[in-house]
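Sorry to interrupt, but I need a hand with the structure work. Please put the record directly below this note.
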Amino acid sequence: MNRLRTHPNPDLSVGADNKQRWNQPAHRRHGFHNAHSLFRRALMVRARNVLALDPVPPRGISTPALDNLMDHVAFSAFVCARDNKILLDHSAPDFDTRHPHSIQSVTKMHIHLIVGRLLEKGLLDLYKPVRHYLPDIGSGYAMARVQDLLDMNVANDFSEDYDDPQSDCYAEEAALGWRLPESGTPEITLRDFTHAITGSDLKNRTGHADYKSANTDVLTLICAAVSPVPLAAQIEAIADAAGYEDTFHISLSRDGFPAFSGGGCVSARDLARFGLLFARGGRDIRGRTFANDAFLRTSLQRAAPALNPPRDWLRYSNHLMTDGRFLGHAGYGGQFLMVDTVSRTACAYLSVLENDAGYDEDYMLSVILALREVCEAVGQQ
């Protein structure tokens, strides 16, 4: 029998810039708008019951800074919600607030919820070393405390520099199912990837959070090891508590672990619903206790490593970015979810930066400050 002609999947193949096609600048907007169907493999979840969000007429809560962002070429969608009301809902001409979008590292907030629930059940000790839960982990994490992973407070040999096309974070993507490995090499598992990371004393001496998505990958393995239910069931529980209207997607590693480090895809409306779960103090759409409220409150109040300037007014605490009132998380490419615990407002902002790095510190600062202004405006009404 003649051998059939084949070629590598073009969306997942890596180009000269060490990025798969869907994350190359010329294709990134299409990629982020369709990542849920471009991953090598993914889990999809829908909620049993939907949190109804009713639109209300805008009441002067938009600001010049937000207007500038929504006019930016990178803009995809923005939704601001409070209780069961949509206060602002806007999208770019080529997108919609109900279409799934890659949220990248905003996905990390799921780990906060899952860890909190495991703590409440007495299944996790944050001051144990990682090797207590993963005995065969490599030197990059073996002696680090679980708490230090939650606070991005570990120093090891993993690098996350989006300006460097050879940074370890791009190799990580093969383990997350975002790209194919080099020709002729097998696909690496998440366990193999994390366990191969090396390090020495692991103490972070930078004075700021040492941001490493691999920390989230290791936390994922720890949660899977101690959770009484599969991580897929934890995701379903979160979807039900938030009351998603549409579908939540998350990429999966070859060994079946959800990519909490950045593999989530969800609409702007449903990302706002996810934020409202935090705004309600962790109560689900029926008003029942879901998240670990004590863990959430402690995360906002405790001392934790500050982010690097100019965002050093935010701390990285238990997989949340917070200043004590506002909490949320940034995502590669231009994403941010902000929750105001005072006005109980959630603002979901999605965009796609098309520069080489896919990241811009000044742009992200402008996003965070604009969302904070909107939340403060809501609180004053």
Observations:
- The chain has a mean pLDDT of 95.
- DSSP finds twelve helices and twelve strands in the chain.
